[in-house]
Design brief:
The complex is a heterodimer of chains A (112) and B (110). Chain A is built from no helices and eleven strands. Chain A is 0% helix and 46% strand. Chain A is mainly beta and 112 residues long. Chain B has no helices and eleven strands. Classes of the chains: A mainly beta (112), B mainly beta (110). The A-B interface holds A 33, 35, 40-45, 48, 50, 56, 58, 88, 90, 94, 97-106 and B 4, 33, 35, 40-45, 48, 87, 89, 95-103.
Amino acid sequence: DGGITQSPKYLFRKEGQNVTLSCEQNLNHDAMYWYRQDPGQGLRLIYYSQIVNDFQKGDIAEGYSVSREKKESFPLTVTSAQKNPTAFYLCASSLAGSETQYFGPGTRLLVL
Amino acid sequence: GQNIDQPTEMTATEGAIVQINCTYQTSGFNGLFWYQQHAGEAPTFLSYNVLDGLEEKGRFSSFLSRSKGYSYLLLKELQMKDSASYLCAARNSGYSTLTFGKGTMLLVSP
């Protein structure tokens, strides 16, 4: 089945810890995106990547890092510099930057 | 940048019709998306408008007026399963990142 997978579904972070959220797609999409969703807020763009080995900051990139070593994968690291990481994290991909974005099931990150 | 406004909540009755409005103010605009999101789940694509006018897709229709910075999503023959949040998103000119509104929570009652 083609689609976008995110893991884990739930993730717990301790104070001062870096954690990495996985996003994989087998749709052969060139572009991938990371969003954060807080209650009562819209989706906010963290990072995006148009092609392998290239990515750009979105509106709220501080405290996050990404890599795009493979077309299929776009992991997001939430660093200890992100002081309010509790949120629902959504990964999306599109065939090209100009096409419709499709979303993975999301990862809910909680701070212990 | 973009500023997207849509109502926070709406209620409607099963079988009725509901219209969810979205207004946007932009420094560059290249189309308008609507997504549906059930609680705790991923958004799913509903519609995309880039030209003025109405796009119909089954029970759902979406309208765009670029000159007025206005769009709406029309849901007909409402069903209980339509209870969800509806997200309006504007595509920015240049590279096609999206700016999302805060979403409209629709509650369909029997």
